[in-house]
Amino acid sequence: MGRAPCCEKVGLKKGRWTREEDEILTRYIQAHGEGSWRSLPKNAGLLRCGKSCRLRWINYLRADLKRGNITTEEQQLIVQLHSSLGNRWSVIAGHLPGRTDNEIKNYWNSHLRRRIYSFTKTPTVKTGTDQPPPTAMNAAIAVGGSSTSPALVNMTVKKRKGRTSRSCMKKNSLVSSSLERSNKSSRPKRDVDDTQRNSLTTLTPVPHVPFIKDQFEGTKTQGSCADNTGEGIKEGGGGEMYDNTAKLSSLGPYQWLDSEMMRLDEFLMQGESVDLDVQLEGLEEMEREGEVLGLNHGTATETEKAAVVTVSCGESNGEWYNYSSSHKNNSSSSSGNGWFDWDWTSSVECCNQWDEGEKMLAWLWGSCSTRNDEEERSDNHSSPKEDPRRRSFTV
DNA sequence: AACTTGTTCAACCGCTTCTTG
DNA sequence: CCAAGAAGCGGTTGAACAAGT
């Protein structure tokens, strides 16, 4: 038997909220505070479902919501976080003050997903023989992230024929858009900013920051979590010590997430068994010491800490595995977690830098490895079934 | 001017997770 | 520990609208 509906649905209003409803809800919450959504409509005198009230408040009426377009910085952050976290919109929203999960989700679906997809699919992508094919990581570059690849700079994504994307249009303020909806005849036409329009179809040059992959060139030592104290690593795969303080210190907090993933990936590619419990302990210790995401970038928020622990070390629910496997599994989206929707087959077909698509796939499987020369790509030429990571992370 | 097509995003729905008794 | 209810989350929908024909 299914669950009872969250509230009595008979007679409840659905659809767009009116200005009057907004005012009633706002007044009520200002007087009584958030929460008790189930009883709120009745108490406030609204013919709405509690869930609807909650959504309206959280996504639209809250005073701390940021109005206006998503900035370039926010855009980059969204892509970067999405590459690490997948479709965890609420977690991603937690990193963007004033933005809601719904807003970010919509923005991703209507702006970024297609754009990044175009980036991976476009046959105009010309990379050198030593340039990696598109990955979730470097796809972030497509929206202005960092790259060592000059080939990516100024590369254009083909603009579809037809009308201008409405994404370029200025977003009305929350209240005014409500008013306009209730008074359509007075709705002003939204003008299009040419600069913004261009920015959607052209990859703009970005400051040179070493691609994250390069940060760990040559660091094949065993170990666990990064040590920011200069004392080295004392635990992990083989217990061997090394100090990567300088490298980590040069990274931003979100890059750090990726770099840690890569290093774990690297161990696994070498056939090392990584004990997730040990990794987790290491990170927790770092957290206690204020080192996690502290790295000259201020104090980590609770959300950030949670993201590090979840993404980097994983838990018994296989989150870590999902991350590393996202490069190869998500075209089928079997996990339902909504990882990047790459079409690997097409990507292989359109990529002309390697003779065999299989090699490319092998590279993708090991895309986080620090070994990037042709010889070592050949080492990764194993079929997916032979990927050593699977031995450690069978979910 | 009317119609068609493509895009956006607020809101809904159903499922999962959390909280409470 | 368990069950029920509340809250939260992510996928999906469809109205509204802009731009092309």
TrEMBL record:
Organism name: Melastoma candidum
Name of this chain's protein: Uncharacterized protein
Source species, domain of life: Eukaryota
